[in-house]
Design brief:
- The structure is a single chain.
- By secondary structure, this protein is an all-alpha fold.
- The protein has a domain of about 120 residues: Cytochrome c-like domain (Cytochrome Bc1 Complex, Chain D, domain 2), CATH 1.10.760.
- α5 crosses α6.
- The radius of gyration is 25 Å and the shape is globular.
């Protein structure tokens, strides 16, 4: 015998199943396909040898304004960061205590900094900086670490000349054997 209670239970299960399937179908169709020109913006790699550096330029003095607008929330006004992962300035890889890894103490190549900022910063809007803005912010971060003068015009040629304090601190495992 089919009762009203059974009917309501069956109807509720049917509605629940329909809603569940609808959510699965929607989840599978999120986003839109991108075209070739949109894809080119994703394959940006700045190598230590200078390949992959875009046109553009800037000084630390120009970068300070961008840093204050776009970077301070995570990295602090002076690059001190809000935690160990966001600290940009200071550190000492030779300390007897646990080393503090920052741009100035740890990274072996300025291209690493350029590549990272170009791809991933600011964290709330990755790839939103122009190439010149990236050069400017990089110049400012390097200047805060005492690596470059505030008047240096950083571009794809001068970035190659930047010597990082920890440039010899890494071993290429492919050449170590």
């Amino acid at each position: 015998m089919f009762t009203l209670k059974k009917f309501l239970t069956t109807a509720a299960a049917s509605v629940s199943l329909t809603i569940g399937l609808s959510a699965v179908i929607q989840a599978q169709s999120l986003g839109t396909a991108i075209n070739e020109s949109q894809l080119q913006g994703f394959d940006l790699i700045a190598q230590p040898d200078g390949s992959g550096y875009p046109q553009g330029s800037g000084t630390a003095m120009q970068g300070k304004a961008i840093f204050e607008r776009r970077c301070v929330a995570c990295h602090g006004m002076n690059g001190e960061g809000t935690n160990a992962n966001t600290r940009l300035v200071g550190g000492d890889m030779q300390s007897e205590e646990r080393p503090i890894r920052t741009v100035g103490s740890y990274w072996p190549h300025a291209s690493t900094l350029f590549d990272y900022v170009q791809r991933a910063m600011p964290a709330d809007a990755p790839k939103s900086l122009t190439s010149s803005e990236v050069y400017q912010v990089i110049a400012y971060i390097l200047n805060m670490n005492g690596i470059v003068e505030d008047s240096l015009v950083l571009n794809k040629e001068t970035l190659l000349q930047v010597e990082m304090p920890n440039k010899d601190g890494f071993i290429d495992s492919s050449q170590a054997l």
